Amino acid sequence: MSEARLELATLIAKQVQEEGDFPAAVPGLHLYRRHEPVVGACQVYEPAFAIVAQGAKVVDVGGESFPFGEASCLLTPVHVPALSRITRASLTRPYLACAVLLDLQMARELMTELDVVKGDERGHAVTVGPMSPELMDAVLRLVRLNEKPGDIPVLASLLQREILYRLLTSTMGGMLRQIVTTGSQSHRVARAVEWLRVHYREPFRTDELAEHARMGVSTLHHHFREMTGSSPLQFQKQLRLFEARRLMLMNGMDAATAAFETGYESATQFSREYRRQFGAPPRRDVVELMTVGELALVS
C-alpha cells in the first residue's frame, strides 16, 4: 500500500503541476494540488469518494469533523455542504489528492447483481476509512488512464464500475448500499437532499418535502438529521450561504445581491445567518479571505 500510495502521488504530481482543482480527461476524475495549508474553504460535496495521496485534510459536515490523510478514503454518497481545511501541505511536499464522482445509477444497477448484506440503514452521509489494496489498484489504473486518452472511451466506464463494486462491497460502503437501494429510508432521505439541492432558493414546507421523500414528517426529520447532521431547514441555509459566499468571492457580488440570488428576502437576516455560519459578517469575511488568498471555494 505504501508503494501504491507513492505511485499515486507521483502520478498526480506529474499530471498536475500547478495549484488547484483540475478535472481530468477521464470523466468524473478530479485531481488536486496545494502548496500550503488552506483554511475556510466551503463547498457542496457531490456523491464521490476522495483519496489523499500526500498530505492531510479535515472535512466538517453537520458539526462533525472527519480527518483523513494519506491512503485513506472519504466517501460522500449524497450532496452535503462541507467546510474543509488542508492541514498538511508545503511547496516541497504538496497536498496531492484525487476524487472520483459516483455514478449512482450505475451503482444502483450494480447493486442488483451483488449478494451483499445491506446492514443497518443508520449512519452518517460521510464516511472515512482505510483504502484496501484492491480499491487502491483500481484508482491507480484510473489515474494512469488519464495519460492514455485513446483508451478512455473504452476503459473509463469499466474502471469506474470496478471502483463502485469495491466500494459497495467494502466495510465503509453501508450508507452507499442503502442510498442506492430503492425504498430504504436512506434512499428516501437522499431524495429529500436532492430536492433541496436543486430548489435551495425556494421556500418549502416540511410536510411537502416529506411527501416528496415518501416519509412521515417526524421520520424524515430523524433520518435526515442522522444522515446529514442537520435538519432540512438548516441544510437549506447552508446551501444558500455557501453559494452566496461563492458568488461574492468568485463573481464579485455585493452582499445584498448575493442574498437575493440565493433566495433571501431580507439582507439583515442574510447577514445574521452568514455571521453565525462563518464567524464574521459577509463583507469582512470576503475581504479577509481575499487578503490571505483562501479562494479554494468550490461549487
Automatic annotation (TrEMBL):
Coiled coil: none annotated. Residues 190-288 form the HTH araC/xylS-type domain. Keywords: Transcription, Transcription regulation. Signal peptide: none annotated. SMART domains: HTH_ARAC (SM00342). Gene3D superfamilies: Homeodomain-like (1.10.10.60). PROSITE patterns: HTH_ARAC_FAMILY_2. PANTHER family: ARAC-FAMILY TRANSCRIPTIONAL REGULATOR, TRANSCRIPTIONAL REGULATORY PROTEIN. This is AraC family transcriptional regulator N-terminal domain-containing protein. It comes from Granulicella cerasi.
